[in-house]
Every structure is written in C-alpha cells, then in structure tokens.
Amino acid sequence: MTFDVAAESYERFMGAWSTGLAPQLIAYAGVRPGQTVLDVGCGPGILTRPLVDLLGADHVVAVDPSPSFVAATADRFPGVRVAEAGAESLPLDDGEVDHALAQLVVHFMTDPVAGLAEMARVTRPGGVVAASVWDHGGGRGPLSTFFDAVQSLDPDNPGERDYAGVNAGHLGELFRAAGLGNVEETRHDVERHYDDVDAWWAPYTLGVGPAGAYVAGLDDDGKQALLEACRARLPRGPFTATASAWVARGTVT
C-alpha cells in the first residue's frame, strides 16, 4: 500500500506512536555502530532518524513506495541512500546490508512473504531481518478504539484485524515462510498522551491510511456519528493511551 499523503500528515497521525517503537526495534534487531542497515517502508523517516543517529547517514539505506515519503526522507537525512521501491523488489545487491528492518510495514505489503524474502536476500548471511506490526488482531493497536467504533456503526467493515501479521504468532509464521532461521517473537508497547478526545480525533481527518480514507468517505453526519461513537469509548479530559505491536526477528542463513 502506498501512502499518498504529506509527510507531516503521517507524522501527526502515526508518527508519535511509531517514534516510540523505533528504538525498541533497533535494539531487538541487535543493530550496532559500524553496521549498515536497510529501512524498508521508511515513510517520512521515523525509523531512519534513530538509525542515522546510531550509525551515521552513510550506513543507512531507506526505501518506500510513496514518492512524497521518499522526497521527505531524502531531504531530512542528507547522505542516506533513499530509493522509491516496494519491499517485494528492493534495489540492492545480495547481502549488501547487515540488517533489514521494517517498522509497521509488513501488514501493508502486497506479498508479505515475498517482501520478507527480499529483505533476507539483501541481508548478509548471519544478519538479521526484523519487523513490527500493530496488534490489530488482539485489539491492542492504536487504531483499535477507532475501528471498534466504526464496526458499531458499520458492522461489515473488517477494520485491520485480518491484515498480515497482526494476530499473535502470525508474524513469526511469515518469517519462517520467507526462509528465515532462528525466528523469535515478542511484543513492544508504546504510550501516547492526548489532551482530550478532539486531539485524539483530529489526525483521523487527515486522510492517512485505511482509517483516514474511511473518515474521508463519510458525509458530515457520518463523521459526527463516528466521532461520538469514539468519544463514548474514550476517557474524558487528558488521557494516556497504550498500544502494542507484535515484533519478530530472524537470521539469514
């Protein structure tokens, strides 16, 4: 899936969540100074930034299928090799990087097994492929409250609970199907503070991802009804929300 939105819109919608996940994924993959790492589905550079801070720009490669995200990442991180590409067809040589990471990307890949196999192809033998996806299946993702409200009004809407890797154990299954060895799985948590429900709702109106597209397709009455359904499920006043992501890593053999 390509996100045809401005980098700033994505950051308002998902950036604060994914910023908290990024250092956890980097540590879980065992990334160390001196290594070269590929950031697959880099978006506007949420994971790219801490990788550059740790490794230096010349040791980071980033790809994304969205032209606006590629432009934003290239502009923000001079020296990083950035390319417009999907996970299933990476513009890198075999074994070119030490690790390949994909944060919140696998569930949007056209063919997740092919995408993970491509990440393994471009990673050296003994290197690590690691990825995270939100726990949409278990109802602990950052969009779970939103889609619960959607389904109360639109029962036929499946939300994101059937996406690849979002249910317990499935991400590891995809890794094994892609030929990775020593596959391990865990869960990472992240928190985000909101001043009120209106602050929580505002990013959904920016047209980002399936949730934003759903809101954009509603008329004014539909948007108001959905907002009120969300409001009934959220605390009043300032609140802190917690979201969980499934995370897996595997070794290239």
CATH homologous superfamily heading of the domain at 7-138 and 159-191 and 243-251: Vaccinia Virus protein VP39
Main β sheet profile? 7 strands, mixed
Using DSSP, what is the number of strands? 7
Show unreliable segments. Answer: none
Order of helix and strand elements from N to C terminus: HEHEHEEHEHHEHHHE
**What's the level 1 CATH class of the domain at 7-138 and 159-191 and 243-251?**
Alpha Beta
**Which percent band covers the strand fraction?**
15-25%
Task: Give Rg in angstroms.
Answer: 18 Å
Fraction of residues in H or I helices: 25-40%
Alpha-carbon distance between the termini?
29 Å
Supply the number of helical segments. Answer: 9
Q: For the largest beta sheet, what order do the strands appear in spatially?
A: 3-2-1-4-5-7-6
**CATH-derived architecture of the domain at 7-138 and 159-191 and 243-251:** 3-Layer(aba) Sandwich
Which helices and strands, and how do they pair?
Layout: H1 7-29, E1 37-40, H2 48-55, E2 60-64, H3 67-76, E3 81-84, E4 97-103, H4 112-121, E5 123-134, H5 144-153, H6 170-177, E6 181-194, H7 197-201, H8 209-216, H9 220-231, E7 239-251
Parallel strand pairs: 1-2, 1-4, 2-3, 4-5
Antiparallel strand pairs: 5-7, 6-7
Q: What attributes characterize this protein structure?
A:
7 strands; Diverse_substrate_MTase; 7-stranded mixed sheet; 37% helix; SAM-dependent methyltransferase; Rossmann fold; Methyltransf_11; methyltransferase; transferase; alpha/beta
